Amino acid sequence: MKILDFVQSKDFFTVNGLKCLRGDYFHNQCNLCIDICPNNSLTIFKNKIYLEDSCINCGVCIGGCPTESLMIETFDENDYILKFEKDTISCKDDAICVACFDQNHYANLMLKQDKDISINISNCDNCELNKEDIVKNSIINRVNETNSLLEKLDIKNKLILKTDSNTNDTSRRGIFTKILNATKQIKDDSNLTKKIEEKLDKKIPTKKLLFKNRLKEFIQDDTIVSFENSFIINKTIDYDKCTNCKECVQFCPTEALTKNSVEDTIYFQIGKCVNCNICNDICKENAINNSFEDISLLDFAFDRAKELVKFELKLCKRCKCAYPSKDNRDICHICDRFEGDEFANLFVMQKDL
Ligand code: SF4
Ligand code: SF4
Ligand code: SF4
Fold first, then answer.
1. Cα Dmax for the chain
2. What pLDDT shows up at residue 169?
C-alpha cells in the first residue's frame, strides 16, 4: 500500500513534500519533475508527488524544481556552483546530470566569472536519461535564458553549449554506478551551502538567494530589462477585473504577494517569486497576469516591493463594512448581489423597516 510520507527517499535521493508546491495549494498542478524524469519514477498520488522505487538517483529532476524540494544527499548543486573554478560543466567530469542546474545557478556562476563557461551536452544524444531529447532541450533552454540575461546586462562572457565530444568514453558504465562515483567524489565536509542555509529564510530557494546576492554586488543603478524567460517574471493585476479578494496573497507560498494593514493595496516582490503560477490559477477573475516587460533587476536583487493594485476603501451603506470602491455606487459588491431579492433588507435595522 502506498504511504505518502512528508519526506520520501530512495537511496541518496529525497523528495521533501513540505517544500513541494503541491503541498502549498491543493489544486497546484506543478509537473516539472514528473515531466523530466526519464524513468517515470515520480508519479501523482492523492494530488501529491510520490517517489517510486524505480528511482535511479540520476538527479535529472533537481534543477527544474522551483522550490528545491528534490535533492541528492551526496551532491549539492549550490555548493558545486559556489566552488566552481573550471571551464566546463560536464557529466563526464564531476557533475551529476547537467540538468540538476538551472538559470539561477548559471547566472550566479557567470556573474563571478571573467571567462566563458562551457556546458557539455555532447553526451546527451547517447545518454539513456535523455529520452526524446527532453533532458537535452531543457538544458539548452536554461542556457539560452541565462545568456539572454547576460546580454541584457552587457556581460560579454557567455555559457557555451559544447556539442562535440573529444573524450572517447567507450567504457560506459551503468548510469547508477557512474552517478554514485561522481557524487562520492563531490561529498566533503566543507559544505558552504549548508552553512549559509542555516541562516536563510527557507521560503525562498537557496539557488535564487545566492543568485540575487551575486546580482547585488554587480548592479549599481536600476537596470530595467525585458526578455521572455521562466525565472524572473513580473506580475500585473488588472484593476478593472480585480475584486480585492486577496486570495492570491493568501496562497502565495513565498509571500511575494502581500497586502498593507488596511488591505486596500496588493504589493509584489519579484525577488521572492518562484513562478509557481498559484496566484494566476487561483484568481477567479483572471485579473493577475505574468509579464516579461520592465523587469527591474534592482527590485529583484533587493526584494523591493511594487504596488500592483490599489483601491479606494468606502464604507458600504448597507453592511457597514469597508469595501474596495471602483464606481459611485454606495454599497459593496456582496450586498449588491442581494439587491432585489429576499435578503435585500438583511442589514437594515428593525426600526428602519
Ligand atoms: S518540481 Fe518541485 S514543486 Fe514541482 S511538483 Fe516536483 S517537487 Fe513539487
Ligand atoms: S488579483 Fe484576483 S485573486 Fe488577487 S485580489 Fe484581485 S481578484 Fe483576488
Ligand atoms: S507571486 Fe504568484 S507565481 Fe510568484 S510565488 Fe507567489 S503565487 Fe507563485
1. 93
2. 47
Q: For 170, how many CA atoms within 13 A lie in the half-sphere containing its CB? A: 1
Nearest to 159 by CA among 84, 218, 221, 216: 84
Mean pLDDT throughout 82-87?
A: 94
Least confident of 68-82, 199-213, 271-285: 199-213
Beta strands in 25-170 (DSSP E): 42-45, 48-51, 70-72, 88-89, 117-120, 159-162
Q: Which ligand is nearest to the CA of 263?
A: 2
Percentage, residues of the chain above pLDDT 90: 67
- Report in angstroms the alpha-carbon separations of 228 from 211, 232, 233: 18, 9, 8
Taking each helix axis as running N to C, give the angle between helix 103-111 and helix 206-218, from 0 to 180 degrees, rounded to the nearest 10. 30
The residue whose CA is least distant from atom 8 of ligand 3 is 276
Contact 57, 42 (CB under 8 A): no
Reply yes or no on whether the pLDDT at 283 is more than 60.
Answer: yes
pLDDT digits (tens, 9 = 90+) for 158-203: 999 999 865 544 334 455 555 665 555 555 556 656 655 555 555 7
332 ligand 1 Cβ < 6 A = no
Q: All 3 cell numbers of residue 310?
A: 490599489
Determine which residue's CA is closest to atom 3 belonging to ligand 2: 283
Q: Which amino acid is at 48?
A: K
pTM, two decimal places: 0.86
- Please, what is the average pLDDT of the chain? 88
User: Ligand 3 test: best mutation among 20, 275, 290, 308, most atoms within 8 Å of CB?
Assistant: 275
Cα separation, 331 vs 322, in Å, equals 10
Task: Tabulate helix, strand, coil % of the chain (nearest 5).
Answer: 30, 20, 50
